[in-house]
Specification:
disordered N terminus, six-stranded antiparallel sheet, 32% helix, binds (2R,3S,4R,5S)-2-(hydroxymethyl)piperidine-3,4,5-triol, 23 strands, alpha/beta
Amino acid sequence: MDRFCNRRTAFVVFLLAFLETFAATGQSVAQANSHPIPSIVEKDGRFALMVDGKPYLMLGVQANNSSAWPATLDKVWPAAETLHANTVELPIYWEQLEPLQGKFDFSVVDLTLKQAREYHVHLVLLWFGTWKNGSSHYTPEWIKLDQQKYPFVVGKDGKTVDSPSPFAPARLEADKTAFRALMRHLKQSDPERTVVMVQVENEAGEWGGVRDYGAEAEKAFAGPVPQKLATGLGKQAGASGTWAQVFGDDADETFMAWYVADYIEQVAAAGKQEYALPLYVNAALRDPFKPGHAPSYESGAPTDNNIALWKVASPSISIVAPDIYMDDYAKYMKVMELYKRDHNPLLIPETGNSAAFARYVFAAIGQGAIGWAPFGLDLTRYSNLGEGAPEAMESGALKPVARQYELLAPIARELAQGNLEGTVRGASEDPDAHTQTLDFVRWQATLEYGMPSFGNWMKPKGNTPPDGGAVILELAPDEFLVAGHHVRVDFTPTYAPGKKRLWLKVEEGSYDAAGNWKTARIWNGDQTDYGLNLKADENVLLRVTVTTF
Ligand code: DGJ
């Protein structure tokens, strides 16, 4: 009897264990199917960030630097909600995560994940580790207080520079350990894939000098250029010389860039081994037209002249991304052109938060960006606008971006898919040219700024301030989805010279949750006789079918 009982108990225990394992496996398979790990895909040189298995367009916002604390997070989420942002970028502070070496505190990470889910936003986490704006101010106290072990950069004059030396094996190991712990924790605690990307460090490089002149750095500088770099940059075989021999005048900056990028690669690779989320680095820029020389810009950073080097040094990093704080139209366009290149998806993880920047979301999407995020739009009342600006940012400052995101958020998935297929075009108002054109397979779209809603006998004079823009998605050769702000849109048939455009149908409407188009009304008469006038204070989505006469 006893034996029978034992056997029966053993069988029940076995059965329960089996069922539990099966259930767990079944669950994780289901989870993995509906929430695969976010990734970057490429198709014919175009890119998409895949979230839940589908292309995702990040309409983001980055919180202020000191906003990612339990005490201030409630000033972040409502701002994201007002903005209609689908993604919030938040720092993870090394000093908070590992206050004592080896003792990790994930409470803030966990709270952040929980609250992001409650507010239905995705997260991009920013690892404020060794580098933050070229300095090292987010390292824990146990690092700051042991400068022998965790050295700063040494300047040419022998003085200490407020920048972490990349020649610091102990700090590199510590950063790897911390980043690995963070990524491991995310893997365990985020099966929903709330976090879609992670930024490794922040604006790494050195301000105030071109390179490290510490003893270890000097030794490396006198030695040969690493073969990986020489080969990766396509240098001649004879390039196996010293840095000065191979890179001439650029030797100091290239040297610094290599060692910063190599350090970050090791941190990134350690984290990626734990959890293979897409990783990126962000760059403080140099002037795209008149770059000058380091150190007039951050040396060793992933500036446009060093993108190729960073690609060679850091294969674990999927994206080298520009932080665009230049509100000049030509510069903004040029920076996007410089960073949108083979094997480098365009991502703008930080951009200015004043009204002038809001329209650039249209051009960014038109250039195929997988994401765009103004910096510092939260309700902590901090302002980074500097001299002449109000000392604190009030909630009204959210309006310009909120207006654009309200329009774009409902079609974000369609735009991301279209960008992967190459069917999206977009433009932001150029203050110096009040007409822009966008080319599709059979049609050319014309965007005019500063036109009234009635009449076509006047010339476009531009908006004051220049705040217009539009994105157009080609749904079929003669069918388009038009989303714009403060702009008149019309079409010309390029496939039928001599013919004119005839509106077949212009529908105002929206997509429902299942992605089906719902028509609210058809525009005709005054609403279409003078082009499609998309006003500044309205957010309408038009589905337009065109033919010729
Ligand atoms: C760029 C940095 O990456 C941000 O963290 C922030 O410091 C801004 N500059 C300035 O507000």
